[in-house]
Amino acid sequence: MTKRILIRYGDLTLKGKNKKKFIDTAIRRIKERLGEKASYTPNHDRLYVDVDVDDEARVINILKKIPGLVSVSPVTVVNSEVETIIDQAVYEAKTWDENATFKVEVKRANKRFSPNSPELQKILGGAVLKARTDLTVDVHTPDYTLNVEIRDDATYIFSRVYEGIGGFPVGTMGKGIALLSGGIDSPVAAYLAMTKGIDVHMMHFESTPLTSIESAQKAIDLSRQLAVYGKSQRVILHMVPFTALHQAILNKVPEPYHITIMRRMMMRIAERYANLDYTPVLINGESIGQVASQTLESMKVSEMVSSIPVLRPLITMDKNPVIDIARAIGTFEISKRPFEDCCAVYVPSQPATKPRDYYAKRYERLFDGETLIKEAIASTRTLRINSETTIDLSEKGFTVSDALEGYDDYIETK
Ligand code: ATP
Ligand code: MG
Question: So what's the pLDDT on residue 21?
Fold first, then answer.
C-alpha cells in the first residue's frame, strides 16, 4: 500500500521565471533523500510523493528537514463517490484531539461533480459532528481543516499539515564558505545560510597543539550534524592548520590585538578559497556585542581585508534564540563539549573593542603573514562529510590548485 504525501514549496512561488529552476532543485534535494523507490508527481506549485504506507512517519521527518519545503501533508486518495468521501472524512476526524475545533474546506476541480462545494461542506461537517460529538465548528481559527479536493481522477482528503523549514532549496542561491568554530553560534549561522538556499562549505582553523585535538573533532562532528541539510546530504569541510599563524600572533602582536589579527588572517584565507571557486560570500557567527571582540569597529577592521562580503545571519539575534536553534538542529550538545577553539583559549584580558585598521596593519608587519598564509593553504585538508562517513579528499590527491577549475565537480567525483 502506498501513501501519497503532498509537499508545498516555500517562497518559490514568488520567483517568477526562476520558478522552474527552484522546483527542479527542490525535487532533486528530495530525491537525494528518498531515492528512486518513491514515485514523484509534480503538480503546479506542489509535489506529490508516493511512499510505502509504513514509511510515512520516517519520510515526513526527512521532508521536514529539507530547506525550501514549507509544509507537508499525508493525503488519502479515494474514489470520488459521496459515500466514500463521507466515510473517509469521518475516519480522518476520528484521529483528531478531543474537543478540538474544525472546519471543512471543499475544492472542486471537477465542476461536474455534484453536490457542489458548499453543499458537500455541509454534508461532511454534519457527518463529522455526528460521529464526534465533542468537536465544534470554527470557520475562522480551527484546530483542524478537513481539506477535500475533488479532482478529475479521484478525491484527495487531508487534515494534517506538518511545517517544514521553508526558505529555498540548497544550491539555488549559489555557494558560501562558513567559518565554523567549535562554538554555538557559527553552526547556527551556517544552518541559517543553508536554509536560504546557499550551498555552504565549512572552514575550520585548527591550532593543535595550542588547542586540543578535540576542538578539531568538534568541527567534524558539527559538520556531520549539518550535512543532513546540505546538498547531497554532505558538507565540505576545509581544515586549515592555523598553529603557525596563531603562534606568530601570540609572539609578536600586542595582546589587545590578538583576536583582531587572528580574524583578519582567517578572513584572508577564507577569501582566497572563495575566490578560487567564484564563491561570492563568507558567513560567520558574529552577533553585535556578544563578546568584547564583536563590536561594529571590530567587524569593520576584520572584514576590510576581504574583498567579498561577510554574511552574519545572527547579527541582531540574542543568545537564547540562537541556543534554541542549536538545540533544534542538534548542534548544541556538540558545541558545548568543554574543549575550546583557538579563540577561546588565550583570550586576551583586554581585547581592543575599537580596533583600528592603522594598528592592525602595523602589527601585521611584525611577522611574515603572507608566507604563513600560503603555507596554511597548502596544508589545508578538505573533507567530505556525510552522516556516516568522512572522506579525506586531500588523501585522494585533492589540492587547492586542483580546485581552480570545476571545483565542485572535482569534489563530487573524488
Ligand atoms: P562561535 O560560537 O561561532 O564560536 P563566538 O561567539 O564564540 O562564536 P568568536 O569566538 O568571537 O565568536 O568568533 C566569531 C566568529 O569567527 C565565529 O562565529 C566563527 O564564524 C569565526 N571563528 C572563530 N574561531 C574560528 C575557528 N577556529 N575556525 C573557524 N572560524 C572561527
Ligand atoms: Mg567561539
Answer: 87
